[in-house]
Amino acid sequence: MPTPMSQLDETGRETRTTLHHFIDGAFQPSLSGETFEDINPATGKVLADVALGTAEETSLAVAAAKKAFEDGPWPRMPLVERCRILRRIGDLILEKKDLLARAETLDTGKPITESLEGDITRSASNFHFFADYAPSLSEDCFTTGPDERHFAFREPLGVVGLITPWNLPLYLATWKIAPCLAMGNTCVLKPAEWTPYTATLLAEITAEAGLPPGVFNVVHGFGANGAGETLTRHPEVKAISFTGETSTGKAIMAAASGTLKKLSFELGGKGATLIFDDARLDEAIPTAVRAAYRNQGQICLAGSRLFVHRSCFDEVLARVVSQVQQIRVGDPLDPQTQMGALVSREHCEKVESYLAIGLAEGQCVIGGKRHAAYPDGYFIEPTVFANLPEHSRLHAEEIFGPVLPVIPFETEDEVIRMVNSTPYGLSASLWSQDVDRCHRVSKGIQAGMVWVNCWFARDLRTPFGGRKMSGIGREGGRYSLDFFSEMKTVSYRYHQ
Ligand code: ADP
């Protein structure tokens, strides 16, 4: 069977392809031969026929991962050896970055430059980072007497289920796979059904890098009542790392309770950008625009509400609108394009339903509709709303699209109250030159991450995650390695 990488047309033309599961080191169709369609959201055309995984294929993948964990070399390999293979996977991602970026763009509708410079580059970094970082972790030893020592060891969990979303498909999958494998686990990845392409390409890369069969498996299919749910209920799956919607997190938690799995959740967000009257507007405004519209607004960390101090509100709104006017919406494969298509028809319709609410309740300053130039794709004009009522759903709910409500405020207390008035608690970005104010406000905001005079500044060692309905646990650096391992204490008494 041709490999998925060889099927991806080098010229960049779209060719309908077939994507299989990757189980025990080999590509396999579903037992029933059934497939589902993967659509290119920029054209509405079928990009791939994807093997439809059910409970059967998922169980085969879990069995392969269990065999690799119990009998294979992976968990027994010295950590540095494992990390050498992980580093090689990162290298191969970089070698094949043009192909991977094209696949990501065809699958998601995101601009090709964002795929290349953002998603795929970061996917390689995820492997390189954890390959370097994991061996640097120390283990604890406590002493209770001259002859008594207590060692705390990290051990792998076994088979882990990784369930990933469609907005940053390879980026977020590799953010889980790399630390999961570094700790000696084996895994089954269930990529989002709307974006199965790059996970399949990654499977080919892992084999080329020398990852033993069964260590990394991919099962395609759906979530509820499908491959995803099977993973969450499977008794041999010891942990689930999930990124996606809050409602899905709740369903997974309920399903996983029967087998008491360890859970890590990165869920929705309703990020805020706060611009105070002493902010450096030349930096704050372009960053606020980037935070709202990058990846068509489909980022959990997006600055999807813009709070502006009343004294500079009119100026900031006018400058935001003038920047939004200049965003180049277009063919995602064109390197000049800055905003592409939303991921799917269903998602586009959901975002349109929020546009309808905004148009009824407030003032649409720019945008507000589907992009007329691309009727076959799922393009929405970058949109700004003002004068929405404080309790508008657009201020509280995660739209996950290029829609930005701009809201005035007078005092610190008022803006903190409004920022915290959503069920989410993931991120915020605040702009002011007053360091005491930055400290007060960042303390008051209920979020896992606050950026001061920046947005999306990342160090992969820092804890990444949210509070409230935005998640459970943290990813990044040792926080990821802690999740993907189990601590064991071994206490020794020595005899002289
Ligand atoms: P979105 O609606 O934004 O796609 P989801 O949270 O529904 O976000 O999807 C993220 C991932 O979770 C996808 O891989 C999806 O198939 C999976 N998923 C959805 N529902 C469930 C479920 N009940 N159990 C396990 N996985 C699920």
Q: What's the SSE blueprint?
A:
Elements: H1 4-7, E1 17-19, E2 21-23, E3 26-28, E4 35-39, E5 46-51, H2 55-71, H3 79-95, H4 97-108, H5 112-133, E6 140-145, E7 148-156, E8 159-163, H6 169-182, E9 186-190, H7 197-208, E10 216-218, H8 227-233, E11 237-243, H9 246-256, E12 262-266, E13 272-275, H10 281-293, E14 305-309, H11 313-325, H12 345-361, E15 363-366, E16 383-386, H13 393-396, E17 403-409, H14 412-419, E18 424-425, E19 427-431, H15 435-444, E20 449-452, E21 467-468, E22 471-472, H16 477-483, E23 485-493
Parallel strand pairs: 1-5, 8-9, 8-11, 9-10, 11-12, 13-14, 13-19, 14-17, 16-17, 19-20
Antiparallel strand pairs: 2-3, 4-5, 6-7, 7-23, 12-22, 15-16, 18-21
Helix pairs in contact: 2-8, 3-5, 3-7, 4-5, 5-6, 10-11
The structure holds adenosine-5'-diphosphate.
Give the structural class.
Answer: alpha/beta
Tell me which ligands are bound. adenosine-5'-diphosphate
- Uncertain segments: none
Number of helices: 16
Tally of strands: 23
Largest sheet: 7 strands, mixed
Radius of gyration: 23 Å
- Global geometry: globular
Distance between the termini: 64 Å
CATH architecture of the largest domain: 3-Layer(aba) Sandwich
State the helicity in percent bands: 25-40%
* CATH topology name of the largest domain: Aldehyde Dehydrogenase, Chain A, domain 1
Using brief descriptors, characterize the structure shown.
496 residues; Aldehyde Dehydrogenase, Chain A, domain 1; Aldehyde Dehydrogenase, Chain A, domain 2; six-stranded mixed sheet; 16 helices; 22% strand; globular; binds adenosine-5'-diphosphate
